[in-house]
Write a structure and sequence with these properties.
- This protein has 4 helices and 16 strands.
- The chain is mainly β.
- The protein folds into 2 domains: 136 residues, no CATH class; 136 residues, Sandwich (Immunoglobulin-like), CATH 2.60.40.3500.
- The chain is globular.
- It starts with 15 loop residues before the first helix and ends in a 22-residue tail after the last strand.
């Protein structure tokens, strides 16, 4: 059982072995799952994001021609192109993106564009996830903090598909807790989240994980096999949240519970945090206390 510490901005010690062996990453379908591959000669070679005044920019760059066709549309979830399975993505709104007539993998099924999942840290765009390659279509999902509006541009020299997503929603900036692997402590980074639901936004930011630059600086994410969360509520000083996906502390004293506890305890209306397993179980569902599910107990 995790125990509340004072002050609320806390550090949680964990062993080097735990850092090395117990962290989890969100799964996405591998490129080797693609059926048949693409006959296109142009390859997707880079994905970039940046925040500009009023919008976040998502860029797909190609080594040859532009995609033969492109679609970008709002979706209730990110679907894997081929199986239709949900690809876990952390956000309040989602764009499904398809790029036709190009490929994103080598003949050995290695990615030509880098990581299949990337946290961006942009003002609205939270993460970009690969959603499969099937019948000549490379698919992605963009998880956003808020549903605003977007525009699509096609540029040449080099060939690029550019999606500009408005970031002028009502927002606030809050700390989100990850793992500092260099000092064996939790560590906060600051993120923009919707002003009307900052705690929900903070957890979406946590599940997206640190950016590439933050990871290079030693910031990690201990997800304990969870892929997301649902049913977040805050009432009478108690925050309740249910994990989705998996749940396992791996026998370690540090788990996703420490990051969730630190992230939610930032809010003055939260005195205790009760975390539920994907099946709805927690150790102390009633009473003024923190609570863990059995799957997160050391």
């Amino acid at each position: 059982m995790f125990r509340r510490k004072t002050p609320r901005i806390r550090s949680v010690l964990l062993s080097v072995a735990l850092l090395a062996g117990a962290s989890a990453t969100l799964a996405v379908p591998s490129l080797a799952d693609a059926a048949g591959g693409s006959s296109g000669t142009s390859k997707l070679v880079a994905i970039r994001t940046a925040t500009h005044p009023g919008y976040d920019r998502l860029v797909f760059e190609f080594s040859g021609k532009l995609p033969s066709h492109t679609f970008v549309q709002w979706a209730p979830r990110i679907a894997h192109d081929g199986s239709g399975d949900t690809v876990p993505a952390a956000g309040n709104a989602f764009l499904q993106i398809g790029l036709g007539g190009v490929t994103g993998y080598t003949k050995n099924y290695a990615s030509t564009f880098g990581p299949l999942r990337r946290s961006t840290g942009n003002q609205n765009l939270n993460e970009v996830v690969h959603a499969g390659e099937f019948e000549g279509m490379v698919s992605f999902g963009a998880a956003l903090m808020a549903r605003t509006s977007y525009s699509v541009l096609k540029l040449t020299k080099p060939s690029r598909v550019v999606i500009d997503i408005r970031n002028d929603y009502a927002r606030t900036r809050v700390p989100v807790y990850f793992t500092n692997q260099a000092t064996a402590e939790t560590r906060s980074v600051w993120r923009d989240v919707p002003a009307g639901a900052p705690a929900t936004g903070a957890l979406h930011r946590m599940f997206a994980g640190p950016t590439a630059a933050e990871s290079a600086a030693g910031v990690g994410n201990m997800l304990s096999k969870a892929t997301g969360f649902t049913n977040l509520s805050i009432s009478n000083g108690i925050a309740r949240v249910r994990l989705t996906g998996g749940c396992s502390a791996g026998g370690g004293a540090f788990s996703i519970a420490n990051q969730i506890d630190a992230t939610l305890s930032h809010y003055p209306t939260v005195r205790w945090v009760k975390i539920y397993s994907p099946t709805g179980q927690t150790g102390a569902p009633t009473g003024n206390s923190d609570s863990l599910p059995t799957c997160l107990e050391p």
